[in-house]
Design a protein that fits this description.
By secondary structure, the chain is mostly beta strands. It is built from two helices and nine strands. The strands form two sheets. A six-stranded antiparallel beta sheet has the order 1-2-3-9-4-7, with no helix packed on it. Strands 6-5-8 form a three-stranded antiparallel beta sheet, with no helix packed on it. The radius of gyration is 17 Å and the shape is globular. 16% of the residues are buried.
Length: 128
């Protein structure tokens, strides 16, 4: 089966301070476009939401715009920018470098669908 989705019509949008993630879910794949504003830092913007000391998500991504710095819990660091592909394991912090937005296309392996997805229910049917 061929599946086609357009990121301009994401399945969901996750907003957080100084950024957002637009997500499309396909069989076996989750694809997202993450946009971060200048001043965004995971440990300040997302840590309070995630409730962990560092980001525990594995990232495989392609940088489209802007620059970011990655700092792993093991002390390794890297700076990434437009055209860079990167893999970052769980256990890291990240922040925008400079005064422009940073945007990345990110993928992850989706959990298998065990139940069909349904659209949200409509308004209740009035009773007479």
């Amino acid at each position: 089966m061929i599946e086609v989705k357009n990121i301009d019509k994401p399945d969901e949008r996750r907003d957080f301070p100084r950024g957002h993630l637009e997500v499309c879910n396909l069989s076996g794949l989750t694809f997202g476009v993450a946009t971060f504003e200048p001043g965004w830092r995971w440990s300040e913007s997302v840590k309070p939401i995630a409730g962990t000391d560092s980001c525990q998500v594995h990232h495989t991504a392609f940088v489209v715009q802007g620059r970011m710095r990655l700092h792993a819990d093991d002390g390794t660091e890297a700076e990434i920018g437009p055209g860079d592909l990167f893999v970052c394991p769980p256990g890291h912090d990240a922040w925008v470098v400079g005064g422009t937005n940073s945007a990345s296309c990110t993928t992850s392996q989706a959990a298998p669908r065990t139940t069909p997805r349904h659209p949200p229910p409509g308004p209740p049917t009035p009773t007479t």
